[in-house]
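To illustrate the input format used throughout this study, we show a single complete record. The first block contains the structure-token representation of the backbone; no residue identities are included at this stage. The design step must infer an amino acid for every position from geometry alone.
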């Protein structure tokens, strides 16, 4: 994944990355964790109050309104705690919610416990 943008506004830093293939791709959690660790060094140097990451999926999907939806993974580090949120299409919600939710919970737990999952 390549960094798309990096902005800091009023001590709130946001970094955007593109593009991952799919949530289940091998090493995605490990890759995200490595990027976050590298980015956190700069956030600490800049004394950012909060750092957020947005990781965009390469593919888009059509929804019930025939609009294109791009899934994304959003991570927020604030007050020594990570929160993870996954945006998905309505189709993904209906067909893959449990798997995505499980993956999201695993990533959040690993970030908060500072553990790298071995593939």
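Output of the design step:
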């Amino acid at each position: 994944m390549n960094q798309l943008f990096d902005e800091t506004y009023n001590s709130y830093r946001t970094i955007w990355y593109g593009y991952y293939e799919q949530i289940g791709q091998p090493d995605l959690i490990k890759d995200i964790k490595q990027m976050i660790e590298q980015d956190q060094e700069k956030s600490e140097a800049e004394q950012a109050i909060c750092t957020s990451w947005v990781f965009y999926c390469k593919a888009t999907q059509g929804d019930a309104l025939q609009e294109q939806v791009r899934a994304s993974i959003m991570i927020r580090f604030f007050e020594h705690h990570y929160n993870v949120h996954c945006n998905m299409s309505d189709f993904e919600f209906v067909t893959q919610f449990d798997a995505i939710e499980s993956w999201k919970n695993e990533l959040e737990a690993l970030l908060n416990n500072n553990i790298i999952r071995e593939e």
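Structural context for interpreting the output: Residues 76 and 83 are 5 Å apart (CA to CA). Strands lie at 2-9, 12-20, 50-62, 68-78, 81-87.
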